[in-house]
User: Which sequence fits this backbone?
């Protein structure tokens, strides 16, 4: 158990809908990262937050947004969902924002868009 | 841009055999960090090791060992006396000094047969 929690574990929804994925980092970690994992693209970085502020952005679609709250939990909002959004979403956390930090991953949320 | 290549897609071994996973990386950064993660069938990503670019010492942790060679840009991972519980997908990842994300290789699926 990495100490990072993600809810829900599975999410099934329909095209065009909007969903929110939630992540709680390990105790004491200030940085949260979101990744997605698909068979064709592998593990891809989406976005990073550090202590409530957006720190870095990767290949995140405009339909997707995220935020980190004062209690350091983070939410990833996915809107206008398409079939291709049906992948595994991981949250990770680290102590601070530096690239030298180990990132500890949550169990993931598997999204299915029908 | 950082790039990680794991040329071996799948490796199948019989229990107690040794297995070596190759990882080759590309980066223009002089300071960078290399990681290995394990993804068992349950799906979570488990951190195994971090290595700094300025520390070329090899490392051993139980049945796991890592060989970092800057001259060949490789960071290979060996499992000695493999066990069925080692069956998983193993990912090599890289981050540069000014990166905030991990760049992952495509992963190598290891199957250990009893």
Assistant:
């Amino acid at each position: 158990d990495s100490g990072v929690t993600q809810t829900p574990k599975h999410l099934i929804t329909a095209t065009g809908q909007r969903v929110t994925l939630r992540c709680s980092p390990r105790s004491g970690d200030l940085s949260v990262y979101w990744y997605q994992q698909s068979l064709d693209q592998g593990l891809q970085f989406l976005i990073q937050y550090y202590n409530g502020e957006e720190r870095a952005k990767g290949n995140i679609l405009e339909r997707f947004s995220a935020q980190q709250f004062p209690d350091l939990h983070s939410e990833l909002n996915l809107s206008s969902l398409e079939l291709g959004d049906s992948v595994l979403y991981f949250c990770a956390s680290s102590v601070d924002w530096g690239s030298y930090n180990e990132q500890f991953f949550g169990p993931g949320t598997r999204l299915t868009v029908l | 841009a950082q790039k990680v290549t794991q040329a071996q897609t799948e490796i199948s071994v019989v229990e107690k055999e040794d297995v070596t996973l190759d990882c080759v990386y590309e980066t223009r950064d002089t300071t960078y960090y290399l990681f290995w993660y394990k993804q068992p069938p349950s799906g979570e990503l488990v951190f195994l090791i971090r290595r700094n670019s300025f520390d070329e010492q090899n490392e051993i942790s139980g049945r796991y060992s890592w060989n970092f060679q800057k001259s060949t840009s490789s960071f290979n991972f060996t499992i000695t006396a493999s066990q069925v519980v080692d069956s998983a997908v193993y990912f090599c990842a890289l981050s540069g000094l000014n990166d905030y994300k991990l760049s992952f290789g495509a992963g190598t699926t290891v199957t250990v047969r009893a």
About this structure: The first strand of chain A starts at residue 5 and ends at 7. The mean pLDDT of chain A is 96.
